[in-house]
Structure prediction request, 452 residues.
Amino acid sequence: MTVLLAIGTGKGLFLATSEDGRASWQVSGPHFPMTGVYSVAIDTRRSTPRLLAGVTSSHFGPSVATSDDLGATWQEPAEAPLAFPADAGVSLERVWQLAPGPADEPDVVYAGTQPSALFRSVDRGVHYELVRPLWDHPHRKQWEAGFGGQAIHTVLPHPTDPARILVAMSTGGVYATDDAGATWHPQNTGIRAYFLPDEWPEFGQCVHKVARDAANPEQLYAQNHHGVYRSGDGGVTWESIADGLPSDFGFPMVAHPRRGGTIFTFPLTADGERFPVGRRCRVFRSTDAGQTWESASRGLPTGPFHPAVLRDAMCVDDGTPAGVYFGTRSGEVYASPDEGDSWSLVAAHLPDVLCVRAAQV
Amino acid sequence: MVTVLVPAALRGEVAGESQLTITAAGTLRAVLDEMAEHWPRLTRRLRDEQGALRRYVNVYVDGEDCRHVGGLDAPVGENAEVQVIPSVAGG
Prediction:
């Protein structure tokens, strides 16, 4: 079985493959050199896996490319795959997220973008249409830009109910629809926004990443801009699960592909000190839905360690046991073939890692 | 006829051609609009979906930076040369 690890960086996409149980890796690339690859997806719902890459050229703008031969060749349509309609008065800046839809809709792919918008494709990610009701939401003009820009960076289709989709944005927070995108409502009750005069607003939170529990789709986990949370009711309300972590700041939040309650994150010290806590390279894992946490870092560097891990630069694969992966802003990528028990280096000296995704292909 | 010089980075969008011949003239907008009909993927590298020239794409009309002579309304004569040059950008 081949495991493919797609690594989006600030200067292109690298593809790593392992044929030996994730013990060793062959790395190719960069594909799309000199573009920022902020989003990547490996869509395995059809018999032929499709790779999708959200690429942004500082000169020539953003686009989405697809590959049906594991990255050997890439295709882009003549017309822009994603484009805001003329009356929106804005232009696409970046594709932050490419999310395959539920298994029952194998041709549906969602894209979260900057500026904050959701797009939907019904042709496996080649062409996309703006989800207009979210764009027209009355809150939109109050969504603010963080340092990375104002973007929908998380899209979580419900695995069994195609009418339900959850998105998260910085800033703005969590929004959800129960009617296939016709109406959207904020879901931030319990998530603190310490940087606002009202620290418990209806919306305006800076949610960094949300992950959905594999066994219970109503259970969600969020890494916030300070704050780590769990929801047991599909995101309607949230409670803190930060107590067992060395810090409540960080960017990624990743859930195990099958086992409920197992999640991973990479804490940083604080908003004003975005280094790993104690300057140590440590992944934290919980196997009880965030009630307790443990460092799962055997094999990671033990010396002083300074790079951060960005929101989409951590992922799991669908193997047994599950593989876990993360990449750093200093261009190292690490893999664990055993759910975080041990780690080894996949690649070093790459450009800054923006996103990773992995799957058996 | 207007001649459009294509930078090396974009020649893959036009089968390797280094220059294109456009019949439209009058304004740079007219030239780019005609280019979009024939080479939409090339043109969307130069303009966003609202029609604006991308920030780090420079276009010169007979040697003049179009941004100094009217932007997309820059006059383009019938035998003009339009040169597309990526600006110095990136790290």
The longest helix of chain A spans residues 132-135.
